[in-house]
Specification:
Elements: E1 12-17, H1 32-48, E2 53-58, H2 69-74, H3 76-80, E3 83-85, H4 95-103, E4 108-113, H5 116-129, E5 133-137, H6 146-159, E6 162-164, H7 166-174, H8 180-190
Parallel strand pairs: 1-2, 1-4, 2-3, 4-5, 5-6
């Protein structure tokens, strides 16, 4: 069995894909609020450790809607620099997105996407094929149906994507809760819980 890589903050970038207020309603295996809270937690951890964050969205002027306002509040710079795709399903196939990832200079990618079975599965596999080490955060992503979630997880694992959860990913980055940076991270993660807008 392939040895699991150890992700370290100075080697990682966080990719947040399509957490949009319309698309997020497709998530049924967990609550949409849970998915957004975990995406925000990942963003806060990335900021605390000085990790680059790359956000992308798809057709914000359509039913998908804008990226969730909690992400804008949490990481306004990454939000402002987000890659706005015009319908490309696999975010990695958009040259602006893959270039933004390459420009981070990081080879370990932590990835969450609004839907596991569409938005997460394809770019994570493409990133592995491009030579990156990738962890997919499943509880900051989700699917409409159990079969879509399960088959996408299996497909990612077979392609070399490592599957994880938000708490596990943050703990891996922290490494030691007794360091000053990690102690400062505890209240940061608990602050400003996102609220889902009503549409």
């Amino acid at each position: 069995m392939e040895k699991s890589p150890h992700f370290k903050p100075d080697q990682c970038a966080l990719l947040l894909i399509d957490h949009q207020v319309g698309t997020i309603q497709l998530i049924k295996n967990i609550t949409s609020d849970q998915s957004i809270r975990n995406a925000v937690t990942l963003a806060k951890a990335a900021l605390a450790f000085g990790m680059p964050i790359v956000m992308t969205s798809s057709q914000e002027d359509h039913v998908q809607g804008p990226l969730h306002p909690s992400l804008e509040r949490t990481a306004p710079d990454a939000f402002a620099q987000r890659v706005e795709r015009q319908g490309v399903v696999n975010a990695w196939d958009d040259p602006n997105f893959s270039k933004a990832v390459a420009d981070t200079g990081r080879k370990q990618l932590i990835v969450a996407a609004v839907t596991t079975d569409i938005c997460l599965v394809f770019p994570t596999i493409s990133a592995v094929e491009a030579g990156y080490e990738v962890q997919a955060v499943l509880d900051a992503s989700g699917s409409s149906f159990a079969i879509g979630e399960e088959t996408s997880r299996r497909r990612m694992e077979r392609a070399g994507v490592w599957l994880t959860s938000t708490n596990t990913m943050v703990a891996e980055l922290v490494g030691n809760w007794a360091t000053p940076r990690s102690i400062a991270l505890v209240p940061l993660l608990a602050a400003d819980p996102p609220m889902l807008p009503v549409y």
